[in-house]
Design a protein that fits this description.
5-stranded mixed β-sheet
């Protein structure tokens, strides 16, 4: 498992190579990294989860592949989490150091789901969405995840993005494309003004 994480971290060190990876495989890799970061209590886990989900949504070529990707991401995340739990959280300190120094944290996520990758590549979603709605920080995420993966019932919360929200984001986006203002409540989500 250690070698898997090292390989995945190297994968994120080279975003140019990432662009050539098939969408579902990229999403699986993101899920595996997320699962290990969650299990080990990585300090930047919440930011990673926000950016990983944004990449999943923004890069999806179709609704069907997006649904498949959500399942693949969740499956890999659960597998990585349970593997790390089963090995007694072996080498979590080293995993956390590598996790917190990934290139993905240099990406900029805009309010409408557009992502500027560390290599300068701009990814625009097929359908704009409210990026602040894709992940909410939860201080009990590790305990709740452990309970779910060990058989407790999951509490599923459905998040819908209202059409007016998307329209407002698109209006803001089209009014001024050049300035980036950091959103006050959520790191790594910026508004274009």
């Amino acid at each position: 498992m250690k070698s898997l994480f090292v390989c995945l971290c190297c994968f994120f060190g080279a975003f140019s190579a990432q662009a050539q990876m098939p969408y579902i495989e990229e999403v699986r890799a993101l899920g595996a990294i997320s699962g290990q970061g969650l299990a080990c209590g990585a300090s930047k886990y919440d930011t990673f989860e926000l950016l990983a989900r944004a990449i999943l949504l923004t890069k999806s070529p179709s609704d069907k592949l997006q649904r498949d990707a959500i399942y693949a991401y969740s499956e890999e995340k659960a597998n990585a989490y349970m593997s790390k739990e089963m090995d007694g959280y072996f080498e979590c300190q080293q995993i956390n150091e590598r996790f917190d120094n990934q290139e993905i944290f240099k990406a900029v996520l805009y309010a409408d789901g557009t992502i500027k990758m560390p290599d300068g590549q701009i990814l625009t979603p097929r359908k704009p969405y409210d990026a602040s709605m894709i992940y909410k920080k939860n201080p009990k995420v590790r305990e709740e995840t452990k309970a779910i993966y060990n058989g407790a019932e999951a509490k599923i919360i459905k998040v819908d993005v209202q059409d007016s929200t998307i329209k407002d984001v698109m209006t803001d986006r089209s009014s001024s494309q050049n300035n980036v203002v950091q959103a006050p409540a959520i790191k790594h989500i910026s508004n274009k003004r």
